[in-house]
Amino acid sequence: MEVDGRFPYYAQGSVVKGFGRGSKDMGIPTANFPDEVVDQLPAAFDQGVYYGWASLDGGPIYKMVMSVGTNPFWNNERKTMETHILQKFDSDFYGKSLAVCVSGFIRDNVSFESLDQLVKTIHTDIATATVVLDSEKQKTFHDSFRKWIDQ
Ligand code: ADP
Ligand code: MG
To answer: Is 77 a catalytic residue?
Structure first.
């Protein structure tokens, strides 16, 4: 496989309110980063759907998928970084510190014909991330991320 120098990319910031367009109702809540964190992203991350690791307030590390871009389906203007953690939480965590390790690319962030198609594709993204993140290479990213969080 080709080496992609963008990874791993670490980011951290407090979880803010997003556009509230009901990703939660679709079963795919996405924790949004503040604009300052989005603005720090290198140009190479202009858009895309990525996978990696996430941790809240220095706690356990979970698998995640992250969407970067202007969300073509929704015609937003501002770029967002939205993290869906592959873990069920009993309550919201707005205001908590979210740390992410972006460790691989899944696909371009393109628009879809329908909401149904978008949701189906996100489920495929989640399935992809679940498998890939079990690889040895991703375990080393996980371990380095743990050190980065704890430092
Ligand atoms: P918003 O538009 O405010 O981002 P969402 O519908 O995308 O609203 O829901 C995101 C919020 O849901 C997060 O900020 C977080 O507090 C909560 N949440 C609960 N479970 C998860 C999860 N597994 N991954 C991401 N966010 C989650
Ligand atoms: Mg969101």
So the answer is: no
